[in-house]
Amino acid sequence: MKIVLAYSGGLDTSVLLSWIREKHSAEVIAFCADVGQEEETKGLRPKARKTGASDIYIDDLREEFATDFIFPMKQAGATYEGQYFLGTSIARPLIANRMWEIARKHSAQAYADGATTKSTHT
After folding, report:
1. Residue 66 and residue 57: Cα distance in Å, rounded?
2. ∠ at Cα 12 (41, 100), nearest 5°?
3. Rounded distance, CA 84 to CA 53, Å?
4. How far apart are CA 33 and CA 21, in angstroms?
5. Parallel, antiparallel, or unpaired: how do β-strands 79-80 and 84-85 relate?
6. pTM of the entire structure?
7. Per-residue pLDDT tens for 27-51?
8. Which residues of 64-79 are buried (b: 16+ CB within 10 A; e: fewer)?
9. I need a surface site. Which of 9, 19, 44, 45 has the fewest CB within 10 A?
């Protein structure tokens, strides 16, 4: 079984990567979308490998995020409680789409969100 995991390199996703690999005897492909948090992507590749990822993608999605998500969000005035732009939540469709592409490329049976450990079968 192959599973694509949304991976940040934090404690939760690092433990989850190992747990999924062991619990499901799965090959885990880690994925991190760089949507502007560049400093958080440093050191992810060796950390994911050390934790047991068979492969890792760290994709620079900043331009697509800005063009297709941030600008329309600002134009629409999409805010939470009238004052906070929806930066984190607005990135999720972009991240999910890229995870789907990776899952299809690797013929993965599922992909998982490392924050909530919810999974979706492909």
Report:
1. 20
2. 65
3. 35
4. 21
5. antiparallel
6. 0.83
7. 999 999 998 877 778 889 999 999 9
8. bbeeebbeebeeeeee
9. 19
Q: List all residues 6 or more positions away from 94 whose beta carbon is below 8 Å from its beta carbon.
A: 33, 35, 61, 64, 65, 68, 69
**In whole angstroms, what is the distance from residue 84 CA to residue 35 CA?**
18
> Which token pair is 24?
């499901």
At residue 98, φ and ψ (nearest 5 deg) are -65, -35
Question: What is the residue-wise DSSP string for 22-42?
Answer: HHTT-EEEEEEEESS-HHHHT
Amino acid letter, residue 106: H
Residue segments in the chain with a per-residue pLDDT below the cut of 50: 117
Q: What b/e string do you get for 6-25 counting C-beta neighbours within 10 Å, with b at 16 or more? A: bbbbeeebbebbeebbeebe
